[in-house]
Fold this protein.
Amino acid sequence: MKILTLNCHSLEEENYQDKLLKFAQWTAKEKPDIVALQEVNQSIEAKAVSSEAAYGFTSDEKDLILKSDNHAYNLAKLLRELGYPMYWTWTPAKIGYGKYQEGLAIFSSMPFKKTTQRYTTHSKEFENWKVRKALSVVCDVNGRDMQFVTVHMGWWEDKEEPFTDQWESLEKIVEKNMKCFVMGDFNSPASVSGGGYDYITAKGWNDTYNLAKLKDEGYTVCKKIDGWKDKDTDSKMRIDFIFTNENTNIEKSVVVFNGTNDGVVSDHYGVMITLK
């Protein structure tokens, strides 16, 4: 099984349509079983589309409105055209860049048995840029139910919306007695001791990068990006992770869309793990 996570910075990227197509073509070729995406945007002013006509879409939100330029909606359409249709779900969390409804998405080669979304911040105000959510799906993987959660966490030092409170809220979505993968953009470098990364691993979650038999340097951000331009950090950071609650046999963990393993499609690079 292959699992991919990427903060896709959608609609904001230069040459966005080319990068969307490139990502879709790569996905159809590599065939990851789970694709977890963050910063999955749709324009506030775009026209609405019928969720019933969306390709493989499901959601537990009754009043959800998909727009015509929704990144996940158009990715699903491309994947269908390329011969690799996937099941998918999307949830909006907040206003992004003053013009987008920014959210999270999960794509799967397997049908969803359950989809859930939950606010992880105290604030649920859509106009508040600090608002965060978690999006979860449960799938039958070779006869065993497994849970996959995508997140876009806030910053460790935020006193208004503490990282620790966000993580504790996220853990409430984790199914009991079920193998779970939590993945996404954690805004918490692995190299910084005493921060969010150490907090998560101290709570018993395993970084699949450390479990992997084969791995590269792991860096997912190699320049100053939005949210980090005013921070004193290393030029290279590992802030995108795939955590699991079980000691899992991981064959390899590789950074993708970094210019070496396929072209750059976002201000973040992606992480893909292969399970034995």
